[in-house]
Amino acid sequence: MRDESEAFYLRIAGAGQYRYPGADLGILVTRGRFMDEEHELLDRARTWISGIKSEFLSEAPGDDRPPVRPEPFGFKML
User: Which long-range contacts (CB under 8 A, 24 or more apart) does 27-36 make?
Assistant: First the structure.
């Protein structure tokens, strides 16, 4: 049965990669909409976001480690 509960997720962020606000963790493709007419996220979207984010762990860099620099050309291209 095909309905809005089906989804395909492609993980983009790899283990040990630099993570920052706005960074893509992955791409989610589903049936149906995730926003209402006012472009606000639906509860369905928030549930998917929470579930995906819960699968990622992160830690702040310690003082003994040099800061991790983003990969060259590893930014979003729109």
Answer: 28/52, 30/4, 30/6, 31/2, 31/3, 31/4, 31/6, 32/4
